[in-house]
Amino acid sequence: MTSVALIVISDGRQDYLTRTLLSAAKNLPPVDHVIHVDDSAHDLGFAGAIQAAWDEALQTDCTHLFHLEGDFTLDRPVPLRPMLSILHVCPYLVQIALLRQPWNDAERAAGGIWQQHPDSYKPVTVGPGVQWLEHRRFFTTNPSLYPRWVAERGWPQQRHSEGVFGLNLFGEDPARRAAFWGDGSEWVTHIGDERHGHGY
């Protein structure tokens, strides 16, 4: 039986978190568990906050985790059930993420995240409105859905942990892929002006 845990990771910026939670209430279908880790209360750092959220999620019966940092808004209804179905029938996918707007200078210059390296992204379509872009470039902590086994691996407690996690994940199995849901258009907005905390 499928069970989804929503994990929300925030860092004390209450105005951003409020906007994030309002967007989730509007656009994210009901989930089975909600876990909130506020790094400002514990000084866990980026890596520690993710591991704390995963530790709590893994104490539930969740089969999947929806990852949401407290400086993103969900701008369209999240197709949670189709995303779950795709992860079930495509077990080589380690996550399905929702695409954000271009953020850094290189992304802006290219016109978006995937536009930086278009040859690295493979479009897959299995039916009307059911499509995604597959790649092996990175694992992202932007809003995304991933299976429980990904969290069971544990998060690296070191600097550049996001990059290290992705390199290890893909390096172990050449068949593994990540995905952005949809046709390459944006689904979420990063609203934080800068990263807070440490250990990125």
Blueprint of the fold:
Layout: E1 4-10, H1 14-27, E2 33-38, H2 39-42, H3 45-57, E3 64-69, E4 72-74, H4 80-89, E5 93-97, H5 105-110, E6 122-127, E7 130-135, E8 144-147, H6 148-152, H7 161-171, E9 177-181, E10 188-190
Parallel strand pairs: 1-2, 1-3, 5-9
Antiparallel strand pairs: 3-8, 4-10, 5-8, 6-7, 7-9
Q: Notable features of this structure?
A:
200 residues, alpha/beta, Spore Coat Polysaccharide Biosynthesis Protein SpsA, Chain A, two-stranded antiparallel sheet, 7 helices, globular
Written overview of the protein:
- The chain is α/β, with parallel strands linked by helices and 200 residues long.
- It has one domain (4-190): Spore Coat Polysaccharide Biosynthesis Protein SpsA, Chain A (Alpha-Beta Complex).
- Helices cover 32% and strands 26% of the residues.
- The chain is built from seven helices and ten strands.
- It has helices at residues 14-27, 39-42, 45-57, 80-89, 105-110, 148-152, 161-171, and strands at 4-10, 33-38, 64-69, 72-74, 93-97, 122-127, 130-135, 144-147, 177-181, 188-190.
- The strands form two sheets. Strands 2-1-3-8-5-9-7-6 form an eight-stranded mixed beta sheet, with helices on both faces. The protein has a two-stranded antiparallel sheet with strand order 4-10.
- The longest helix has 14 residues, at 14-27.
- The model has no long low-confidence stretch (mean pLDDT 92).
